[in-house]
Amino acid sequence: GQSLEQPSEVTAVEGAIVQINCTYQTSGFYGLSWYQQHDGGAPTFLSYNALDGLEETGRFSSFLSRSDSYGYLLLQELQMKDSASYFCARFYSKTSYDKVIFGPGTSLSVIP
Amino acid sequence: DTEVTQTPKHLVMGMTNKKSLKCEQHMGHRAMYWYKQKAKKPPELMFVYSYEKLSINESVPSRFSPECPNSSLLNLHLHALQPEDSALYLCASSQDSGDRKFTLNTGELFFGEGSRLTVL
Questions:
Q1: Rounded to 5 degrees, what are φ and ψ at B19?
Q2: Is B45's Cβ below 8 Å from some Cβ in A?
Q3: I want to staple A43 with a disulfide (CB 3.0 to 4.6 A). Which of A21, A37, A93, B81 is the partner?
Q4: What is the pLDDT of residues B47-69, one digit of tens each?
Q5: Closest chain B residue to A96 measured between Cα atoms?
């Protein structure tokens, strides 16, 4: 299967840390990406994990555990502008093409 | 140039019209994608082109017809659409990691700003 699961909504306070989880079905899995999308905008790439462990990019980090079919996105020092939808996207590659399927998305609200 | 350009930004069409959405990238990416996104929903994969060949059609109705004239361009031809086809249509491109000897999969899709389609 290709399905992914994420919490539908998360609320956090400005300056805090928030973790958005994503679980996926193992079959055909190759890697997990994270995207941010503001209302009316296009998805923008945040991070990618193909191997177990933590990837850090500024205030954003992403973690993957292939044995647990689980990943998360960690946002630190939250800012009001981080209010957006966040999607995990499973990435799997065949010999001649890549396929990327998005999770249902998590709506993050950052409050003062 | 790290942009994916989509035109038009907005399109209103009747159910009997024929129109096309266009997408262009000059990053040398060999994989290009069409996604459909409804409000408050995730992008839903429609088509994938790899090296200008259609690799994936996610059971999309034939009223949507993709075309990849060359490695930089991707079109989506629309004909006899239904009101429920109204959505944001997103084009994306990526390095195609199918040939692993030569490419590194960065896991990144580059998205255009989308074409917002309304079918009356």
A1: -140, 170
A2: yes
A3: A37
A4: 999 889 998 899 999 999 999 99
A5: B98
DSSP labels, A66-92? TTTTEEEEEE-S--GGG-EEEEEEEEE
- d(CA B120, CA B98) in angstroms, rounded, equals 40
pLDDT for residue B97 is more than 70: no
- Assign 3-state DSSP to chain B and report helix, strand, coil percentages, each to 5: 0, 55, 45
3-state helix, strand, coil in chain A (%, to 5): 5, 60, 40
Task: Beginning with the edge strand found earlier in the chain, give each strand of the sheet holding A18-24 in spatial order.
Answer: A4-5, A18-24, A70-75, A60-65, A53-57
Of B90, B105, B112, the CB nearest to A50: B105
What's the token pair of residue A38? 């503001």
**Position B100 confidence tier, pLDDT thresholds 50, 70, 90:** very low
